[in-house]
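Annotated sample (chain length 399).
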Amino acid sequence: MPVNFLATVYVEGRQAIPYYDTLKVAVPALTLLYAMKYYFAGKRNTWQRDMHGKVVLITGGTSGLGAQTAKELAALGAQIVFLVRNVHDGWLIEYINDLREATNNQLIYAEEVDLTDLYSVRKFATKWIDNLPPRRLDMIICCASVSQPISMPRQTTKDELEPQFQVNYLGHFLLLDILAPAIRAQPPDREVRIILTSCASSLTGEFNLEDLGYLKRNYPAYRPFLVFGEAKLYLALSAYELFRQFNNYKRKDGAPCNVHVSVVDPGMMRSPGFKRFITFGRLSLLFVYLLLWPLSWLFLKSSVDGAQSMAYAAMSPEVVEKREVAYISNCQVRPPPPRSEFKDPEKQAALVKETHKLIEAVEKNSAIERNKFKKDSEKKKEQEKKKEKVNKDKPASKK
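Output written by the structure step:
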């Protein structure tokens, strides 16, 4: 009984406590460890919002930060539309079915959007806005991200662009740019939230409009982390010009703009991208990640912890009350990173202008290549048909 035990300790002293010498060392150590873990995990989102029936488009929603964000919103009743590279992947069907069962929400499905192919982005976005009346749209969350290991040689996408630049910035920019009419067409009483993800690496990015997309720069060695930081910087900066364009739009009904843009820094996480970065993208170096796991577990956030700021951006009324871009970190609206570009609307507008020029040039070249491929394919088919016809018309050989 607790009373008898306490009485024994009172009479005989602390030595009556079993394993006292071990506990007096272990308990303070475990308490300190818990306190450190609690601190580095960051704040928790305390806002709740009825998401029933609200339509949410999300990129990168099947792993890491995006998966946890999608799960939380689906549990609140939101209709989740995953924008994925390939809707025919077998695991995707199982993933969606498991999520439907876990959240008791059947309004979850996927659409094909390959951010490494601007033509794929345009096809989806054009199909989405080609509706009368306009389709409902309450939230767009851009979580998809590519982080190349340091040892990775320079690669290119279908559009001949650096993968990190195209996925982390250009693909999302084009998606939002084409969907803009559908966003503006939403009823004035329906708040539309656009949530973009950034990180501290944006501080390392170079603002270089002369070579947008790392097409001309030729460093002695390819440094993927610099491209990653630049892409995250551009995505965050474009959010400010995007918000101004929506806010300056004059609706025919005279109602004010009800579009709200947030840039979220979820913090350092033990994400799949982090694991790939640490192991240099090599399975043989997985032991490095395992050796560092205790430190990463203590000092880095999990996907659940990182998703708290995403949930805050999706639910907090402060995002709506703040009539400007909300830069969110650790479940708080904070000042943007200490870079002059965040306070320079002219540079932000120039970035958007140059991005439009780059997209136009890339899509033009891609269209030429598609047409060339189509003609070559048709020519090949015609040749095969002629060959089959010749073989068919040949007289049977005599015995």
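Annotation: Strands lie at 55-59, 79-84, 108-112, 139-142, 192-197, 259-265, 326-329, 332-333.
Annotation: The CA atoms of residues 20 and 26 lie 10 Å apart.
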